[in-house]
Amino acid sequence: MPNYKNALTYYFDALEIQDTTLGENRMNDLGYANTLNGIGGVYLAMGEYVNAETYFLRALEVQKTDLENTDEDFANTLHNLGVVYTRMALHSKAETCLQNALAMKEGIYGCQHPELTPSLICLGQLYNEMGDNDRSEMYFSREEEIQEVWSEN
């Protein structure tokens, strides 16, 4: 069983070190954003969605200002935030985050890459929860097609 309390302790220790060493520059540091994203991920795994949302939003703030940021980092954090909103039944917010994350990943990897599958699955699940079976099936089918193509390679 995962030890979330220890994980949070280590992440918060890292955050404190980054706050001390980076000072005001922490808002321009991808490592700082990654730590915030990690904390959000632990809270997500614990089912503490409000805390997860807080840390994912903070990570996005840093990623927006980080000159070394890659769209991939931003897309992954946006995806994580979309998962939080899905679990909180905030469907409109979830849809926006997940659609934007998918679009960014398509821009990075193209339209037939396995890195798209987590977003496709989450969108399929979201639309299923919303009762939109046609859209749900479209995303699940697309995910299966990508898996088939890549399993042949």
Tell me about this structure.
The chain has 153 residues and is mainly alpha-helical. Helix content is 80%, strand content 0%. It is built from seven helices and no strands. It starts with a helix and ends with a helix. The model has no long low-confidence stretch (mean pLDDT 92).
Map the helices and strands:
Blueprint: H1 4-22, H2 30-46, H3 49-65, H4 71-87, H5 91-109, H6 117-129, H7 133-152
What order do the SSEs take from the amino end to the carboxyl end, as H and E? Answer: HHHHHHH
Runs in which pLDDT lies below 50 for 5 or more consecutive residues are none
Beta-strand percentage range? under 5%
Count of the domains:
2
- The CATH architecture classification of the largest domain is Alpha Horseshoe
Task: State the helix count.
Answer: 7
Query: How many β-strand runs?
Result: 0
Q: What's the mean pLDDT score? A: 92
| CA(first)-CA(last) distance | 35 Å
Structural class: mainly alpha
Main sheet, how many strands, which sense, barrel?
Answer: none
What is the level 1 CATH name of the largest domain?
A: Mainly Alpha
For the structure shown, list the relevant keywords.
7 helices; Serine Threonine Protein Phosphatase 5, Tetratricopeptide repeat; 80% helix; single chain; 153 residues; 2 domains; mainly alpha
Describe the structure in brief.
The protein is mostly helical. The protein has helices at about 5-20, 30-45, 50-65, 70-85, 90-110, 115-130, 135-150.
